[in-house]
Amino acid sequence: MSKAPVAVVGIGQTKHVAARHDVSIAGLLREAALRALADAELTFADIDAVVIGKAPDFFEGVMMPELYLADALGAVGKPMLRVHTAGSVGGSTALVASNLVAARVHRTVLTVAFEKQSESNAMWGLSLPIPFQQPLLAGAGGFFAPHVRAYMRRTGAPDHIGSLVAFKDRRNALKNPYAHLHEKDITLEKVRAAPMLWDPIRYSETCPSSDGAVAMVLTDTEGAARTPRPPAWLHGGAMRSEPTMFAGKDYVSPQAGKDCAADVYRQAGITDPRREIDAVEMYVPFSWYEPMWLENLGFAAEGEGWKLTEAGVTELDGDLPVNPSGGVLSTNPIGASGMIRFAEAALQVRGQAGEHQVEGARRALGHAYGGGAQFFSMWLVGADRPTT
Amino acid sequence: MTEVLSAPLVVEFPFTRSLGPVQSAFLTGLRERTVLGVRTGDDRVLVPPVEYDPVTSAELRELVEVGATGTVTTWAWNPDPGRNQPLSTPFAWVLVRLDGADTAMLHALDAAGPDAVSTGMRVRIRWAAERVGAITDIACFEPDDGTGPPERAATAHHGEFTDPVTGIVAPARLDYVYSPGRAQTRYLAALADRKMIGERCPSCRKVYIPPRGACPTCGVATEEQVEVGPGGTITTFCIVNIKARGLDIEVPYVYAHIALDGADLALHGRIGGLPYDQVRMGMRVEPVWSDDGGFPDHYRPTGEPDAGYDTYKEMV
């Protein structure tokens, strides 16, 4: 039996902010879940299973939070499971949920991803004082900055590319009411004048720390036929892993990322991603990762990604808009960040993205990665029901 | 071979919790010696209150006040109280259904011994002298000798208090014993002699430093030890301009990836011995050892000509 087509029929997000002191973790998830159900015009009674995801437990100090979320998410008496793949978890959670529908295990699945970063300190959670190990000497961005320098050396990209990305994403965020950062008076000069935290990464080119949740309702063809708004159809989805460290690892363009994208394109029948994909939501925690991923995902030849950014191709009105939502650079509830990419890609092809809608978007890619470039997860969604 | 190292690893953090409206009312109520529950759509009273109905998932917001006396529904004797438990002397863990509630809550009962505890016995709250809006505002339960207030039904409560508690701090602590394993132990022992010993994979022949005892690509054990360095090449780096948590290093400084001669992947280290803005990719460096017998304190330039990009680009 072939895979069942999967449709995204409901999407809900919280307004992402630095701290949601007014709600519990359960309350935060519930808010996103109810919005996704309202979008689909469904209730918890219509849901067959719930799949949730978040970043490592140390980030909030709630071990196995899924144990206490069944009531808040209407999962009582239903299967509920949790996915855990570091920063990519939001993407892989959506894929596990979609696989349950594609495999005809469940007809309608609610999937939710979240992080309440204000309850803890992610940097602490990532740098436990393991005995006998040399501590990471550089803080959060220090892990990434040397790879950015390597990219610049490898490609000859000029210094200002990173600032262009940050300036674009923060302007896009102004058109997204759910984005965390709304820097109304942003200018390129301000981005460029920000201090270098981990040279070559400026403060203005880093992601914020956010509280937020996102939810989606996925369903089969019958469910999609009943839905009030246009669905987004899943055309391809894949995950890949590789070790965080090994001899020959390419941190600038990891093999697992290339393989994951190639698998998605094969499933979706995409042979020229640059021409055939209308919008991309990619996981860019530091601005320079936009040109790096443009190459890794096959939108540009090696060494050429920065030229797309520089030419304005990735702007909201360019011919390959990247992160029209404002991206991770504007909103980063870590465990939710990957699923926000997937959900925003779906919003684009549903024509439901509001002010940050890419005109006429028919196919969009959602991308997530995490764990020291260890995990990759991606999906390609389209406005049309897949033919194969 | 040398004994494998191990050391305590304590993971400790004061996590914060935003309570949301229901838990906020419950904990603030305890501060005011008022126990609140929540009423469900089918008219049950849940104590402690929850935000969402455990059966229907409906949002629950109708708060009620219940009694400070109740009935033990089941119990277990705790002869040896541990750290951070409610009482330091032996006590009973009890489930108590407070008067007016349909569910029981877990707490401690201060009793003389297991013979003094029984299912169905009447108990009452012993309030803590200092109350802050936490479950520990109930110091424990104690046997009710009949002088407590009579059984009562739940009564409606607005749940509003001045200066409500909206968040709590939940300190978490995990005690591990950590062992880095045989490969790391050998590596650390060699560092004490100021030698850098990696391990070669028998399959792909790559040399790993620090060694992990197995090749992450081939998945086979690595046993052959190979001395690498001490010289090496900076493959890439960043200039750190903000102090990292818990690190006492003057900023700015350079944090670099260093490919030691003979190793097949870079390790990480700080670069010193020259101004931070003169560090280059390809610069040749060597370790500067600290006196504590551990990792090099930092790496400094050797003065050799820079390595060509092609010689290290596979490790960037």
TrEMBL record, chain A:
Q: What is this protein called?
A: Thiolase domain-containing protein
Which InterPro entries does the record associate with it? Thiolase, Thiolase-like, Thiolase_C_2
**Pfam families found in the cross-reference section:** Thiolase_C_1
This protein's source sits in the domain of life called Bacteria
Thiolase C-terminal domain ranges (all copies): 244-374
- Species of origin reads Streptomyces fildesensis
